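Re-running the complex after MR caught last week's input typo. The corrected sequence lines follow. Everything else is unchanged.
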Amino acid sequence: METLIKRIIIDVKKGDQEAFAELVELYKDKVYQISYRMVGNVHEAQDIAQESFLRAYVNIDTYDVNRKFSTWLFRIVTNLSIDRLRKKKPDFYLEQHIEGTEGLTLSSQIAATEELPEDQVITHELQHWIQEEILNLPLKYRSAIILKYIEDLSLKEISEILDIPVATVKTRIHRGREALRKKLSSK
Amino acid sequence: MKCDKEIVSLMHKYLDEEITEQERKILKKHLSYCEACNKHMSELKKSIAFVQSSSHIEAPENLTELVMSQLPEQKRSVNWKR
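Corrected-run output:
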């Protein structure tokens, strides 16, 4: 996989746009998943995902092919998500939770599995609840928890993406877990 | 009863899979008699399982097209130079 990516990137660096389309195809779900989990809104998430790829394209010359491409790309999307959230008014989060249509749009984008209608309702509610609790986490913990438990990345990779020492990643994950625990056990 | 911070720290080490054999024994022994810590541990595990049960989300189908349509013209011209 890494060799394939490397080859594609070399083509992109040469100015091959078709090669860049291949890269987007390969990474779009992961990039979108990070932005969606970070901001919790499909429109914002799509916007951030697009912007991330555009930035990656424009800055591809600064990317070192000997490093892992996903780390570089995930750093862009994480930073853009954080920037976007910081610019928001605090009540943005509240609106998210009240808005009834949000979950609908989300469910339509979740890969459909063979389930009975009743199970679908339960899954839908559970998914909505999970996203809500993720959004309740302070930004610092949220990014670390998403990268660790949703993207399944190693502590070292997370430290490179967030540009913080591994020890700090650990602390954030520990605190994130404790924050989730407190929320969940109080329900 | 409030237990030593050390025990909670061991729980996190355990969850990060960075616990040593000796620490694992200490934790296990403590959990065998301390109900509060036992509960704490199981709640932490549940929290992780909770986040991990989030569905895999797919990007909108037209995302690639959208991105491609927005690429700056500048680089496009490089193609015909080759």
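None of the earlier attempt is carried over here. Chain A has two domains: 1-88, 137-187. The radius of gyration of chain A is 18 Å.
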